[in-house]
Prior knowledge:
Blueprint: H1 12-31, H2 35-50, E1 63-66, E2 69-80, E3 83-88, E4 95-99, E5 103-105
Antiparallel strand pairs: 1-2, 1-5, 2-3, 3-4
Amino acid sequence: xxxxxxxxxxxxxxxxxxxxxxxxxxxxxxxxxxxxxxxxxxxxxxxxxxxxxxxxxxxxxxxxxxxxxxxxxxxxxxxxxxxxxxxxxxxxxxxxxxxxxxxxxxxxx
Length: 109
């Protein structure tokens, strides 16, 4: 029995392949109305994408928009692996960890 590789051990090619396979499974799950399965698969895709993102594109103290929640902003206080830890704007008492693949630069206002 093959032991699956961790995303941190995969090459960029393997991560791309994994994301393609997860996307196909997520599409099928969505079409079949399997919402929980769809959510799990989209989370796995976000994790795989986080390992392909460049952590140097993100800075502690900076605020980023959450891709899945437009107009919701997240300020990074520290990193742990590919997770940015911090808080959503207006919710400083609720620390959260977000895969860096779910963050995008805040547009200048």
